[in-house]
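Help wanted!
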Amino acid sequence: MLDSFIKKSRIKSPWLLHFDCGSCNGCDIETLACLTPLYDVERFGIINVGNPKHADILLVTGCVNHRNKHVLKTIYDQMPEPKVVVAIGACGLTGGVFRDAYNVVGGVDKVIPVDVYVPGCPGKPEAIIDGVVEALGKLSEKQNAAAAAVAAE
Amino acid sequence: MIDHIEDITAETLIGKVEALKKEGYRLVTMTATDLDAETVDLLYSFDKDLALMHLRLSAKKNAPAKSISGVYFAAFLVENEIREQFGLTFEGLVLDFGGALLLEDSVRPTPLCRYTVVEAKPEAPVAGA
Amino acid sequence: MLDTLLFILIVLPFLAGLGCYVLRAEGVRSLIVVATGGILAAASVMLYFQTPFTYPVEASVQATLFGVSLDEIIMVADFLLLAVILYFGVRHKNAIIVALAILQGALGAYLEFGLIEHAPKAYPTFVIDTLALVMVLIISIVGSLICVFAIPYMKEHEHHLHLPASKQPRFFLVLVAFLGAMNGLVMANDLAYFYFFFEVTTLCSFLLIGHDETEIATKNAVRALWMNSLGGAALMIGIVWIYSELGTLEIAKVISQQHTSAAMLVALGLLCFAGFTKAAQMPFQSWLLGAMVAPTPVSALLHSSTMVKAGVYLVVRFAPAYADTNLGLAVALCGAFTFLGTAALAVGQSNGKKILAYSTISNLGLIVACAGIGTPTAITAAILIIIFHAVSKGLLFLCVGTIEHGIGSRDIEDMRGVYGKMPVTALITMAGVVTMILPPFGMLLGKWMAIESSAGSLFVIVMLALGSAITVLYWARWAGGLMSVEGGEKFKTESQAALTRAPLMILCFGAVVLSFLAPWIYSDMVVPLIKLSPYAVAAGGLQSGAGSFAVIPLFIVGLIGFGVAINALRKARSSHAFDAPYMAGIQSPAVAGAYTGPMNKPVVVTTGNYYLSAVFGEEKLTPYGNFAAIALLVLMFALGGLF
Amino acid sequence: MLHMTGTILRNLFSQRATRLYPIEKREPFAEVRGELLFDVEKCTFCVRCQMACPSQCITVDRKAATWACDAFACVYCGICADTCPDGALSHAPAYRPVAREKSQMFYQGVLKEKPKKAAPAAAPAAAPAGESPKPEKAEA
Amino acid sequence: MPRTVVPFGPQHPVLPEPIHLTLHCEDEIIKEAVPAIGYVHRGLEKLAEIRDHNQMVQVVERVCGICSMIHAAAYCAAVEQILGIKPPPRAEYLRVVWSELHRMHSHLLWLGLYADAFGFESLFMHFWRIRERIMDVMEATAGNRVIISVNVVGGVRRDLTPEQQKWVLSEVDWVEKEVARLKDVMMNDYTVKKRTVGVGILSKEQALELGAAGPMLRGSGVAQDMRMTGYHAYGELGFEPVVETDGDSYARSNVRFREVLAAVDLVRQAMAKLPDSELATAYKGRPKGEAVMRVEQPRGELLYYVKSSGGKYLDRVRIRTPTFANIPPLCAVLPGLELADIPVVVLSMDPCISCTER
Amino acid sequence: MQAFEIGLNPATFGWLLVGLLVAPVAGGLIAGVDRILTAKCQSRVGPPLLQPFYDAAKLWGKETKVSNVWIAFCSWMYFTAAATSCVMFFLQSDLLIIFFVQAVGAVFLVIGALSVPSPYSQIGGQRELLQIMAYEPLLILVFVGIFLATGSFNISAVYAMDKPLMLESGVVPMVLLFVVLGYALTIKLRKSPFDISGSHHAHQEIVRGVFTEYSGRYLALVEVAHWYEVVLVLGVVALFWATSWYAIVILLVLTYAAEILVDNITARLSWRAMLGKLWASGLALSFVSLAWLYAF
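Answered by r_m:
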C-alpha cells in the first residue's frame, strides 16, 4: 500500500530545480512566472527547491556553454533518482539563435539526457506547464518500467 | 560619425585619462576592434553630464597595452575581457583574471580576432586576486 | 575498618605521592598510581556501605595519626603551609599573596592561641554523610581515573617538550596528593581541618598550574594563588567570626540551624565568598581559565573532581545555615549570574579547553544558585549536578586531551571532522556532550530540577532560562563539528594506549549508566542527606508536585530511537550511495572538499562556527560581567549584613 | 509592519488570480506568433526565408523542391513569414506542443515555375535533416 | 576567527542567473568577495560576422530577455545613424511605448525578485501578478510575451490599432493603481526597511568613480538618465529622472519603484501624442561607418558601438550593458555586509548577467 | 508517574496512540491547510490538501544519497525525539521535560547539518542554533508563567483548573505570555520574519539552510518530525484556553491564522535583528508578565 502511495506521490509532488544554463533570461522569467499567482504550479504540488538533492525535475534553460556544462552535469548527477530533465526554449533545445557562437556547446541534450523538450523563444508558461506534465508522464513510465524490470528478475 | 573623438598614443594615454578623471568624467567603457593582423583599435568612452567623449588608441597586438584600471578601477573588467577576446595583455591590471574571466581553456583563444589569432603568453596568474 | 578507610582515603594518596616522587622509575610510578587509584576507588566504594558515620565514632575519643594527635598535626601543618605560600609569594614578588598569607597566619595564630580553649574536642573530627560520600566517590573514582589517564598522557606530553630531566615525579606527587587533600576536605567536620585541606588544594593547584614552568604558566599559577588566597583569607576571617559568634568550629553544629543574625550571615557570606573564589565564580573566573595552560589531566582534575568542587561543596555544605535568608537569595543571584555570564562567554570561544572551563564555571554557578535557593528540591539539584558534572566534564577534558595529542590542537575549529581521524574518541566526545545537555541524562535532570525549584525567583529563573539556551548553542556546534567529514565510509579506528582508552571508556560508560541510575542515586544519596523526599520515585522517574521526569521510560524510548537510528546509519553506510556536499554545482572533481572558483582555480571550503564576537567576545563581555558580579557580591554582603 | 495586510486580506476574500491552465485554456491573442506553419502548396522555394532567418534554421533546396526547418531552433521572430512573398509561411496563434523527441519540419514540394529572380547563390546541397547548416556554407 | 567560505552560485536559488561569488565570511560578515562570471557567455558579438545587419536585430534582442526590445531599439538606432536615416515619427513613439512597457515589466519583475531576496514571498507574488498584465499587453500587441521582435532597422514592424491603444491604456491604469497600493509596503514597512535601509551604501563619489549606471547611479544622487538625451521620441515628452540620494538598497528600490509609475506616465503621454506616419523608413545599401548609441535600459545606460565597412556583415558590434558597468561598484560594497544581505544588495543593482556576458 | 502506567490505564494508552499516530496526521493536514491558505493570501490556488503527505511519501521513496551517514542517524534521532515529545504532551507530562526532549531533536537536526562540510548546511546549522538560543528562554519563561498560575509544570495541572489559563491570575500577564509564545511559535513553524535557518521556500541565501544536506527519506523523516513539533507547539497554545474543545479550536484557528498573516506581511529578518528583537521584546514581555504574576 505504501508503495502504491509513493508511486502516486511521485506524480503528485514533483519538485523542480531550475538551472539557467546560459539563457538570455527570457525562459527563466517565464519559468519563474509559472510559480506566480497567474499560473501557480503549486497546484500540482510543484515547488521550486533550488537544491539538486531535493529535486525531481530539472528544468534547464539556455544554450549550454563551455563553462556551465560542468555545472549542469554536476547538478544532474546530484539529483537522486527517479529524475527527469526538461529542456526549455530554442536555446535549451538546440542552442537557438546562438548555436553558432564560439562559446556555445548547443542544446542541453549534448551534456545530459533530456526527457522533454519545450519549444519556444521563450517557452510560454503554459508550454512549460505542459512540459512538466509530460515529464511526469515520463516519470511514471520510467517507474513502471523499473517495476517491471524488478518483477522480471 | 562619432562626435568628440580624440586620437592618442600609448604614451599619452594615462596622462589624458587622469586629466579626464580630474575633470569629473565617468568611464563608460572601452571597445576593442580588430583592425588588421597587427593592430587593435581601442576606443575609450567617457561621459560627463550625458555628453560622450572618446579617446582612440591603436594598440599593437604583440606589445602589452597600458592598463587604465589604476586610474579607473572599473576598467579592470573590460580590460580582462579584451585580453581574453583579443589576446591583448594589459600592463598594470589591478585585478587580473588570467584569461579565465569568461572562457574555459577548451575554447579557442582570442575568439574575437578576425584576422589573426594571437597566442596570449601563458603567465603566472595573480594569486589572491 | 573505619580507621583504615579514612587512612586510605586521606593519607594514602599523600604517601603514594611521596612514593612517586622518591621512586623515580617510570614503571614503578605507573604501578603506584594505578594501584593507588584502584585502592582509592575500592575504599570509596566500601565507604558507601558504611555511610553515614562519624569518626571517631565516640565523640570523646581524639583522632590520632601514627599516635600523634591529629589536631596538632593539622595545626603545625597549617602554619607550615602558610609559610610555603608565603615563600612562593615572595619568590614571585606578589604583594597580595604575601599580605594575604601573613594575614591568614596572624588570624590563624589568633584563633589557635588566642580564641580556642584547647580542651579535648567533644565532637567527631570527621563526619561522613551522603554529601561527603558523594564527593569521596567522585574524587576517588573520577579523580583516580584522571590520574591513570595522566600516565600515558604525561609521557607523551614530555616527549613533545624535550626536557633534560623528567618532571613527572613532582607532577604525580602533587596530583595524587591532591586526591587525599580533597577527601580530607569533604569529610572534615572541623573548620580548622577544613581550612587546612582547603589551603592544601590551593597550593596543589598552584603547583600543578605552574608545572610546565613557562612564563604564561607561572603567571597564571600566581594569579590562581592570589585569588585563592583571597578566598583562604575570607575563609579564615569567616572561621574566626563564626567561632567568636558560636564558640565552636564544628561544622555539623553550624549547619544544624538556620542563622538569621546579621553577624552570622556576614560570616557565612565570607565562607560563601571563599567558595566562590575556589569555584572560580565570576568575577574570579580568570584563574580557572588561566589554569588551562597546565597539562590536560590537571585541568580535568581541577574541573571535575577536585578544587572547584571544593568551592561548591563549601557553599552547598553550609546551605542549610543560610537557607531562606537574604544571603541565600544573594548567593542564588550570584550563582545564576555566573551561570548566565560564563555561558555567554563560552559562546565566544573556540579553544576547546576554554569552552570546557567556562562551561564548568557555568555549571558551578548553577550549583551555587541551587544552594542559594536552598529548598530541598534545589539541594537535590545541586547534588545531582555535582555528580553528573564531575563524570561528564572529566570525560570531556580527557577527550580534549586525547584529541589534542592526536591532532595537535585544542581548538574546536581544528577538531572539525576529527571523526575521520579518531572515530572512537570523537564518538566518546560526542557522547560526553550529549550527556551534558540532553535528556534523559543526569545533567539535564539536574538542570530541570534547578529550573523548577527556582521558578519562584524572578531574576534567577530569567537568568537560568537564558543561560541554559546559550549552553545548548556552544555544545551542539562542537558536537556537530566533530562529525563534519565528507563521505560515509567506516573510518579506521585509532590506536591508543590502554591507559588512555580505559579511562575514556569507563567515564563514558559511567556517564550513561549513572544517568540511568539517577532515581536510585536520588533515593540513596540525596534523601538521607536532606532527610526529606521532595520527589517521589515511581515507575522509574522522579516526580514532585511541580513536575515529573520519567527517567527510565525516557531512557527506554531513547534506546529504541538510538537503535533505529544506528540501524539506519549502518544501512546508509552499506548502500555506499555517497554524494558530495552541495556546493552550488561547482564541486571540484579533482580536489576533495573544494569547488572550482574564480579563475577556474579550486577553492577549498572552510567553515567556521559563529562566535558572535560583537556580543559574546571575551574582551567585550568580561568587564561588564565582572562589574556586575562584583556588584552582586557587594549586594550579597549588604543583603546578608544589613537586612 | 501592517502595510501588506490590506492586500493580503483582499486576496483572501476575493477571486484568485490563477488561470487554471490545463483545465481552462485561454483563447490566444489574435496575432500571436506561435507554431510556424508552412504551406508547401504555396511555396516557390525562393530561399528568401532561409536568407532572412536570424536563427538560420530553414533549409530550402530549390532543385529538389524541399523545404526543411529545424523547428526546435526556431526563435519565433516571424521574419520568415514577413519575408515570404508567397504567403506560404505563417504563425499559428497556439504555441508548438512540447515533445519527447526532437523533430524536423520537412516538406517535399513540386517546382511550379521558375523563380522570378535569380537567387544570389545556390543553396547548400541538401543538408541532412537535423543538422543545422554551417554558417560558412550559408554565407557562400 | 575562522572563516566560512561560501560558494554563492552559479546554481543558487536566490540567483535567477548563474554568477559566482566566493564569499569569505566571519560570523556571516563578508570579509572578502571574489566574483566569477562566464557561465552565460555565448560570444554573440562574434555572431555579427556571420549574421547580416538585419538578422543581428534578432540576435541582439536575445542579449537579454528582460529588456530585449530596448536592446534591439538601441542597435537599430545605431545602424540607422550609420545609414543616415531617421525612423518615421510614429515608429519613434511606438518604440517609446514598448520601451516603457518593457521598463514596467522589468521593474515589476525586479521588485518581485527583490522582495523574494529579503524573504517577502507574498510581495514577490503580488508584483509578479501585476506584471502579468504587462505581459498580456506585450503578447497582444507584439505577438510574443517576452521577446517581442518589433524593431527593424528603419522603424518598427507592428502598429497599435486605436482599440489596442485604448485597451493598453486601461491595462496600464490598472497596473498603476495596483502598484501604487504597494507603495507603503516598499517604502514604509518596518521589516522591509530593516532589511534595506543602510544596506550596501554606494556614495555619489564612489558611484561616479566606479562607473555605476542606471538606478544604481540615480540611487546615489546622480541625476543621469539617458532618456534625458531625447533619443527616440523622449525629447518630445515630459520627463524627469527619478533620483534618490541615500545610495543604499532602499534608495535604489525606491528609484525603480517610482520609475514604474513614471513609465506609466510616459506610456500615456506617448499614446496621447502618437503621430500618424509610416512604420518604417525604407533605405538602400549597406551601412558603412561607425556609430555609438546610448539608451536607457531598465538597468541603466546601454551603449552600442557598431562599425561597418559596407560589407555584407558588420565589422564589430560592441555592447556595453549596464550590469557590466555595475559589477565594479557591487564588488566595492560587498565587504562588510552580512551574508543575509548579499541577495538584497546583489539584486539591488538589478543584475542581468546575460547582458553582462553576452 | 501515572503517565507511564500504560497497561493499567486504557485512556492513557489511547492518548499515547493519539500522540503517536493522530498527531503527525494532524500536523500534515495543518501543513496542507497552511499551504492552501498561504496560497490564497497570495491570490493563488495552492496545492491539494494532502500535498504534505504526497511530498513526504515521495521523499521516502527517493534514492538515498548522503554526504555523511550521520545524516541518517540524526534524522532518525530528530524523528524519535519529536514523536516522543509529542506523545508526552498528550500524556500530560511535565512541560519542561517535553520541551527538553523536543530540544534533543532540534540539537540532532543541527548536528546532522553540521556533520556535512557544506557551507550551506553549516551556516543553516549555526543559524538553527541561534534560533534555538532565541526561543528556548522564551518558552521556558512561558512555562514558568504557567507554573505560577497553576502551581505545577505538569500539563495535567492546566486541565485540572476550572478557569482557562488565559484568565487565571489576571488576563494581562497571560496575554503577554501568549504573545511571547507567539514569537516562539513563529520560529518553530519556520515562518517569516524568523525563518532564518531554513525556510519552506528555498529562495534564501543559504539554499535550504539546515535541511540542505538532508535528502530522500531522511528529509521525509525531518518533515514528519516537523509535523509532530507543530502539533506540540500548537498544543501549548491550546493550553491557554483548554476548558472546552470549542475554545481550543477557536484559539488554535485564530493563532494559526495570525501566524499565516504575519508570514505574509513581513520580510525575513537577519539573524542579528532576530536575536535582538526576540531577546529585547520577548524577554521584556515575559519579564513583565512574570513580575506581574509574582506580585499578584
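OP: Thanks! One thing I noticed: The longest strand of chain E covers residues 288-297.
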